[in-house]
Amino acid sequence: xxxxxxxxxxxxxxxxxxxxxxxxxxxLALAAATGAVNSNSVNAADAAAGQxxxxxxxxxxxxxxxxxxxxxxxxxxxQSGRHIKTGKVIExxxxxxxxxxxxxxxxxxxxxxxxxxxxxxxxxxxxEKADLISYIKTQ
Length: 139
Known about the structure:
Blueprint: H1 10-16, H2 21-34, H3 47-55, H4 70-73, E1 81-82, E2 89-90, H5 105-120, H6 126-137
Antiparallel strand pairs: 1-2
Helix pairs in contact: 2-5, 3-6
């Protein structure tokens, strides 16, 4: 089945989607991936803003060491990272070296939700998630 091409902007699609952030992020990711959104209008995602968010350090309310995305994933997303608490190796996030990354909307939402809560101390907004995904895609 071929996707229907449209020139709708992301913001107009967002207004049609229920407020639930999980549903919105997954549907927007699918819309962008299938071409259902005009690529010129996908301006809600800002790779530069995603990079700032990626590198920002967040104080922790429980008194533990401040964290950033780089704490576990590192600055070079083409390399493996290591979780600072569990020591578990994290495969590279960069789609350029790990083509499986950013292909499953459910996994994207699961990990963004978990990692935003652990790093920022809260769930990321839909815009923050889009910015992070946009940044990761540039790697």
